[in-house]
Amino acid sequence: SHAFDNSSFDGGADGPIPQDPTNRNADWASSDSDIHNRVNIYGTYELPFGPGKAFLNSNSLLNRTVLGGWQLNGIFAGQSGLPFTVTTSGTATNTGASSSRANVVPGAAPYPAKKSVSEWFNPAAFSVPTAYNWGNSARNILRGPDEINLDSSAEKKFPITEGATLLFRMELFNTFNHPQLQIPAGVINASGVGSITATSNIARQMQFTLRLTF
Prior knowledge:
The chain is mainly β. It is built from one helix and 13 strands. Helices cover about 5% and strands about 35% of the residues. The chain starts with a strand and ends with a strand.
């Protein structure tokens, strides 16, 4: 998908929207919430162990109560990064605006050879606009990091009587403890420009549940 607009009004780092009130077309670009690609996959798999299964299928106490009846579940989500705008702190346009977009340096690569949290984009590819001029870089010209996440669980049913079952469930949120990086600092004449200093998710969490059905 691809979403376009000329004013997302998200309170983010785009500066005044539009940058130039007399030229709204200059702000026509990818929406602040534009996500080009996203995939969600859910899967569940019952392990082939225990009575009635392919392996360890004898009706022994060990197979019934410990080895058999396990089920694995997972939810995977992945998406491409959100766009962001390279701006300046303050403006020389004499319009009273608090900021404007940066200028593009001709011939300079916007991204380094290898993106990292210390340099996600190349600050040298942008410059502060000259006096009485708006920045000529497009709105939302760059993209932040992709996001991926896996939540998983394992559960087992313990038959107690013919009409009663105890379910044990272990859940892992952010299974691989993978950080979701926020977009980098994009104010070209401020400290830390191009670096990423925060995440948008939490570290791995675990929880255990027991449920009696009768």
